[in-house]
Amino acid sequence: MSASSVAERNDLTLSKRRSLRYKLRPLLRDKWASASVLFLIVIVIMAITAGLFVPDDINSPDFGARLLPPLTDGHIAGTDQLGRDVFGRLWLGSRVSLVVGFGTVFFALLIGVPIGMVAGYFGGWFDTILMRLVDVQLSFPFILLALTINAIMGLGLRNILITLVIVGWIEYARIARGETLIVREREYIQAAHVSGAREWAVILRHILPNVTTPLIVIGTLQVARFIIAEASISFLGFGVQPPTPAWGSMVSDGLKFILSAWWLITFPGLMLALVALAVNITGDWLRDTLDPRIRNR
Amino acid sequence: MKRYVIGRVISGVLVVFLALTAVFFMLRLSGDPVLLFAPMDTSRQDMNAIRERMGFNDPLLVQYGRFMRDAVQLDFGNSSRERRPAMEVVTDRLPATIQLGATSLLIAVSIGIPLGILSAVKHGSGWDKFARFISVLGQAVPGFWLGVIMIMFFSVRLGWLPTSGRGSWEHIIMPALTLAAFSMARYARLTRSTFIDVLGQDYIRTARAKGLTQNIILWRHAFKNASVSLITMTGLEIGNLIAGAVVIEQVFAWPGMGRVMVQSLLNRDFAVVTAAVVLFAAMYTFANLMADLAYGWVNPTVRLN
Hints:
The complex is a heterodimer. Chain A contains twelve helices and no strands. In chain A, 43% of the residues are buried. Chain A is mainly α. The radius of gyration of chain B is 24 Å and the shape is flat. Chains A and B meet through α6, α7, α10 and α12 of A and α1, α7, α8, α9 and α11 of B.
């Protein structure tokens, strides 16, 4: 084989590797995962564009059009007891779920990971306090703690986000700590020390990249958990308050009309289930792809 | 072994103590407790009198000490709504919650585990796909919505089952199934992965080579080893069922601890909330301890220390 053809072939592989299709290959191979990711992308775009498509008066009542069944008068998902378009409210409600789901994981990671890594790396009293906190938190059902804190802190979207972050960060701190404990003992960390790296440089440059994979996987799966948690809390009458549409509170609003208007209850819950399903499938796929070590757990 | 149990109990007590501390300070810092239950038209002087009488004017640490002294005796004050000891209000509801939780656990175990085994044994078959689909679905569907949909279908549409309340055996069917759905999915998933691991081990091949029947291999050889992780999970699952009950009880108006807790939060009856939180935490810690002990019992290679 001549030198030029080798170069040519390398060139080909390189351009092929750079192509989007090549990068997405592991995803496209799994049709459930690709469908889920696609669905989530659509939902995210819907949430972002809600301001453009959902009319501003979506929350103002129209008593002439009360409790219309789906597919009447241009209301795809029908109208509620105040004559408001259910489809538009579902569309707007996607914002609450996504902001809470992704926002909670983001802030919980932001707080939990540094604390967990410092605790795992240095140990000592800081670590002891963190582990006690973990013990306390593990002795409470998640939703119970969230409900209590939310009831005390007050209602609304911002407070439910803060509540879930307060309850959620410890989980990431625990995982980051555990992973750091394992990585800390590796030879390349000792090598970094020997070559004169500072402590914080070791943590940032050598430990952080090696603890991210399990955090990404668990973080993704947790998005679904927080979305359901927010919906449950809003369903119970805490959390997001009317007239802001949230999928959880839409279900509880629909309860009064359980005898006559099935669509009020069915659609918001279906959206919740589909989003949670898509997030879970994506998370499982990420786990299988990124980290075979924790597979099937 | 004895030392381990004592150590765990002490750490459990410590956890409940820390939790109580957290609840106390959160409640006190969240606002004036008198404003919560005094009528709107109470005069300023009367308010002060109430504060003085109930000790809210004392330094926070004194209040904390008093709160802890009473809490040790399981006295959390009176329910502001029912005018009787808060702990009594909660413990009255304990049997209903235990009944619901135990029924759900039974359903989850007796459907989830066989489904998982079936899935592992017929790895890759249609059964496997079905079981995996069920377990993914069960973990995604929000419990409260599943409950409402069941009410809509079985009670409203078909009129087969009562919508809410507690009484005959028919009342428990829907709440228990709803609560069990999530746990069942998790059992199926864990059982499947554990059995796939176990069935690939050498001693299973040996057992097959000896000519043992599939049933004996499955139940006597594989199940014993798989049960270690199933038992660990059961401790966690009891906790999940308790947590799920908080929401599900509300859907079906099931008169348990979860419902009384949610109602008290809505009514800002914080004595009852505190009592419920403590009881929940104690049950949760106890379940985890039992799971740990059972774990050591089925797997003697685990040294408890």
